[in-house]
Specification:
The chain has 516 residues and is of the alpha/beta class. It contains 18 helices and 15 strands. Strand 6, helix 5 and strand 7 form a beta-alpha-beta unit. Helix 3 packs across helix 4 and helix 16 runs parallel beside helix 17.
Length: 516
């Protein structure tokens, strides 16, 4: 059996980590697999991947393809037929809305060749706050975004998404959970010279911004700086703990859509508003520090992310033997049991006082946002959503994550106000006390538990089971339940997904371009 793992690009990031780790696990564990190759629309980073790769430029993000000559769903389908007809097709984030022709081409291929198995693995949904991406799909597709085809198996990376797709109308036989593989690693035996590493970080690494407070603990936020990671909230948390803490953010945002936000965050490190280091992930190799060494030298792994598909670093905190302090997310239901008996704390809100004038401004901005959603949500749904948001903004206390990025930055610049600092610590006393209790603990990594649920062997076994199921039935024998092609806007699964994600937590102003 040959497998082709397809994505727009394999630059460093979550999807790339999943694809490479999964491919290696399958090659190690499954003798029946003859070969696996990664098929990428972008040539970036392919030389650094020690697997077979193929570069097909029309698979890239639509905005990154030089010119549009030759780009069509028919051209995409033809490339799949010419190069990969003898492969099991495993496509990541086929429907994210970065290239609608690619989405349509993949679905056309599956329709034309019902004897050829196709796995569509979903990490993120365009219906979840990415409405510009939906515009791309609407403009370029002529079919349902989520068709129920006999040779297609949808894969989700968390239990929430599996249940969501089924509740929205996809047959349960067509949807399966496949947790991301987590490197078995050897973090439990890693000897870390904490003082050496801290001194090297404090001395300044290449390409970083910020200033270290030698007397304060290290809080690690191991993410790329994009809006949904809500990095400025982590900075506020680090400032509020008694005595303050250094926030270490590993990577900048690189996509065009995220660069303005990333630059804003970096500027706050550079001017001293945030204590710590920004972008040190690019320089640790040059400084002679391994990433796991850096992680294990820290006092706390923090996350203020408002949206995750899987949340690798939640499980990584366990592997590194570092306590976790994170915002609670609905996708954590499947992995939260792993943290039983392990030092961690999940918080739901970070309260801040907001003056009436500012709340009125936020209300107007959210109202505009609701009006912009008229092209995607029915009036009744928008009206109910608007009522929920208005109720939230009527209170003098607001969750920090509902500010836009520019307002978050402005709030952080006020942290020299001792009266405000005391008020914030009082408002959030319980959660801050939990952060203090966790800081500096050095628990033993539950390595065997991680391997059992997320290790490479477990992943390979589950993936092999799903592949065999798809190859021999029953899915291949079940007739289509929605065989007629319909416009993407009319896809009932898509419409229900839009309604399912019509909640304040998925429509924060944070997702807009920041205004600093």
């Amino acid at each position: 059996m040959k497998i082709a793992i397809v994505h727009h690009h394999f630059r460093p990031g979550g999807v790339t980590k999943v694809a490479i780790s999964g491919a290696k696990a399958l090659l190690d564990q499954c003798l029946a697999i003859e070969s696996i190759q990664l098929v990428s629309g972008s040539g970036d980073n392919l030389d650094a991947i020690d697997l077979r790769t193929m570069h097909l430029p029309l698979f890239d993000y639509h905005s990154d393809i030089v010119g549009t000559n030759g780009l069509s769903s028919e051209a995409i389908c033809r490339l799949l037929e010419e190069h990969l007809s003898d492969h099991l097709l495993w496509v990541h984030n086929y429907q994210l809305g970065k290239n609608g022709y690619f989405t349509q081409g993949v679905l056309d291929y599956a329709r034309r060749h019902p004897d050829r198995p196709v796995m569509l693995q979903i990490h993120d949904f365009p219906e979840c706050g990415r409405h510009n991406n939906l515009d791309e799909l609407y403009a370029t597709m002529n079919d349902a975004i989520y068709p129920d085809l006999p040779n297609v198996l949808y894969l989700t990376i968390n239990e929430r998404d599996r249940k969501l797709l089924i509740s929205c109308g996809i047959s349960s036989e067509r949807v399966a959970l496949l947790n991301n593989p987590v490197s078995d690693g050897h973090a439990d035996s890693l000897d870390v010279d904490r003082e050496r590493i801290r001194k090297r970080v404090a001395a300044g690494l290449p390409e970083t911004a910020g200033k270290i407070d030698h007397s304060a603990p290290f809080f690690l936020y191991p993410v790329r700086t994009i809006r949904r990671k809500n990095v400025l909230e982590a900075a506020l948390l680090a400032r509020l703990v008694e005595g303050g803490a250094n926030l270490l953010v590993t990577l900048p945002g690189t996509s065009e859509a995220e660069q303005e936000y990333s630059h804003l965050v970096r500027s706050l490190f550079a001017d001293g508003t945030i204590t710590g280091a920004f972008g040190l992930g690019a320089g640790i190799d040059a400084a002679g520090i391994g990433f796991e060494e850096l992680a294990r030298s820290c006092d706390l792994v923090v996350s203020s992310s408002v949206q995750e598909g899987f949340g690798y670093f939640f499980v990584d905190a366990l592997r590194w033997g570092v306590p976790l302090f994170a915002r609670r997310l609905d996708i954590l239901g499947g992995i939260e049991p792993l943290f039983e008996g392990y030092p961690h704390y999940l918080y739901s809100t970070l309260w801040i006082p907001v003056r009436h004038e500012k709340r009125k401004e936020l209300s107007e901005r959210y109202n505009r946002r609701m009006n912009e959603l008229s092209a995607y949500l029915h009036e009744e749904v928008r009206s109910l959503l608007q009522e929920r948001i208005q109720k939230m903004l009527n209170s003098e206390l607001i969750d920090f994550s509902y500010l836009d990025a520019g307002s978050q930055a402005g709030f952080l610049r006020c942290m020299d106000d001792r009266g405000l600092l005391r008020e914030l610590r009082s408002l959030n006393a319980d959660m801050l006390s939990q952060a203090a209790l966790l800081t500096g603990q050095h628990p033993t990594p539950p390595t065997e538990t991680i391997r059992k649920h997320f290790g490479n062997e477990h992943f390979a076994s589950r993936a092999k089971e799903l592949i065999e199921q798809l190859m021999k039935g029953p899915s291949l024998q079940i007739g289509e339940t929605r065989s007629n092609k319909i416009p993407p806007r009319e896809d009932p699964v898509h419409r229900r997904l839009l309604q399912g994600f019509a909640a304040p937590e998925y429509l924060r102003l944070l997702y807009e371009t920041p205004s600093s």
